[in-house]
Amino acid sequence: DEIPTVVGIFSAFGLVFSVSLFAWICCQRKSSKSNKTPPYKFVHVLKGVDIYPENLNSKKKFGADDKSEAKNKSAMPKNSLHLDLEKRDLNGNFPKATPKIQSSPDLENLSPEHFAERKKDSVSPDSLKSISSLSSEDKQDKLGTIFFSLEYNFEKKAFVVNIKEARGLPAMDEQSMTSDPYIKMTILPEKKHKVKTRVLRKTLDPVFDETFTFYGIPYSQIQDLTLHFMILSFDRFSRDDVIGEVLIPLAGIELSEGRLLMDREIIKRNVRKSSGRGELLISLCYQSTTNTLTVVVLKARHLPKSDVSGLSDPYVKVNLYHAKKRISKKKTHVKKCTPNAVFNELFVFDIPCEGLDDISIEFLVLDSDRGSRNEVIGRLTLGSSAEGTSGEHWKEICEYPRRQIAKWHMLCDG
């Protein structure tokens, strides 16, 4: 009888000891865990700085002693990115510090001679005064310089264009004596690739540093292409002002050895002078019984050149007005790369009043341009107050309802 009693007493003491030891261990772990800084695994992406594992050669590790820290700081280059994770707050953010100006990675690869030339070309306050004292003819001749680089990636079969900056642009805003520049780039002659940079506010020396990569262009076709840079100034209330253009034929430019840095003077936009804006063939029919107006946009011919490629992508926008208020709008499909387009598209408009006395219809022929605002090639307005062939056409459809009447009309400036 004594043996089972002794075994039970020892078992009870062992159980109490085990529970107490387990509770003490849990308390120690909890207290040590609350005193440690949580190991953050995510790093915020800084704008303009590449943060990838292969670029963080001097990244500080957790648990490093003071000696290794001093050694890392002394061995760290000036331009490398250093992340001191222990200086973060509880939310994982860095304390605010005075921002430092960093140079672009592409510009760091330039030779000292190139920097000397850039320093020589930089605009000083004295040079700004001398520029302001120039005559109006000299100001028109000097439109600035654009800096860019070209490269071909053979592994990805991609053509890479980096638009770095522009210098010495003219002021398009007479009040603030500055501009809001951006650059629109097109690869000619097919005009398939159209891109544009962001708009930089109130500057005559914009630094874009934007890279555009065009895939699917074989290296053998690079020699047949031409780059067209259009430098514009953004205008919120009207059409953007054209500062100038740069045309770069790629024939004879060798890109097999790597990146090529280039700069070109901006020249005045070459707009071909034409006797007119082209012609538009329109067919109209007024149905007095249903009080509807049927409009057929048939053809356009002799449209002027809208860019250096000599080809436009025209389409027609039709606006219906009642007492000078637009009440309806339609548009045709885009016809690619042609100055003589065939549309053959029919639109039916409901007339809100009896008769066509207060009705007018406007035709806008535009050039479709991806990535920027479409340019107006020509304009045509038909109505009771119109003159010439437009007024005669309108008079005929009023006198002969239910009859489809077609006529050619000359387009005027948009």
Automatic annotation (TrEMBL):
UniProt xrefs under SMART domains: C2
Compartments it resides in: Cytoplasmic vesicle membrane; Endomembrane system
Domain C2: 142-263, 276-409
Chain intervals for the UniProt region annotation (Disordered): 62-81, 94-131
GO term, biological process aspect, one: negative regulation of secretion by cell
Membrane topology: Single-pass membrane protein
GO molecular function terms noted in the UniProt entry: calcium ion binding; calcium-dependent phospholipid binding; clathrin binding; phosphatidylserine binding; SNARE binding
Comp. bias regions, Basic and acidic residues: 62-72, 114-123
Gene3D superfamilies per UniProt: C2 domain
Alphabetical keyword list: Calcium, Cytoplasmic vesicle, Membrane, Metal-binding, Phosphoprotein, Repeat, Transmembrane, Transmembrane helix
Main subcellular location: membrane
Record's GO cellular component terms: axon; cytoplasmic vesicle membrane; exocytic vesicle; plasma membrane; presynapse
Keyword Transmembrane helix found: yes
Record-annotated membrane-spanning stretches: 6-27
Entry's family note: Belongs to the synaptotagmin family.
Protein name, entry field: SYT4 protein
Gene (UniProt): Syt4
